[in-house]
Amino acid sequence: MILGIHLEVFLALAYALFLVAVAAVLEYLARRSQQRAEGYQNAGFVYFRDLDYWECPAGHQLLQLNTDQQRRVTVYRAPASACNSCSLKHNCTDSDEGRLLERRLNPWVDSEVRHFHRGISGVLLVLAAALLLAETVRYPQLHDRAALAGLLLPLCLVALKLLPTLAPQRRA
Hints:
The chain has 172 residues and is α+β, with helices and mostly antiparallel strands. The chain folds into two domains: 7-34 and 111-166, no CATH class; 43-104, no CATH class. 53% of the residues lie in helices and 14% in strands. The protein has helices spanning 7-41, 80-84, 89-92, 112-138, 142-162; strands spanning 46-48, 53-55, 61-68, 73-77, 100-104. It has a five-stranded antiparallel sheet, with no helix packed on it. α1 (7-41) packs antiparallel against α4 and α1 (7-41) runs parallel beside α5.
């Protein structure tokens, strides 16, 4: 016994905390990876939020072309004349209509990558909760159940918060 708690219950608590930590690290790494990927896509371009335009490395403005509310994406395009006469064009775009950039309105929230990683995190949280519930049934002593409930309740609250984000997106 450790602190009045059976060793198996203590190990189950430690393992459940490990699963929660892995889920949290996966969420962080997935979000960071998504942000880096979007940064590469727009590398060298600067976004001016107040004026809602992008500026290319050559100093040309990419103005808002349209916003697709279904996809939650705003599209920006540089003038074709500016791109076609630019010395950096061969490194930037092969389009004769000007460079095109997309800015996602909810880049992480709506991404398919997020759904995948959120699903993995959800499975880890469910495994941790199942383990704690099984230990609650196996060890009915008050100290054991109090320790298990102390971790199970916040774990269930987190899982309930994540559950709505796992719902599939509706597409037209």
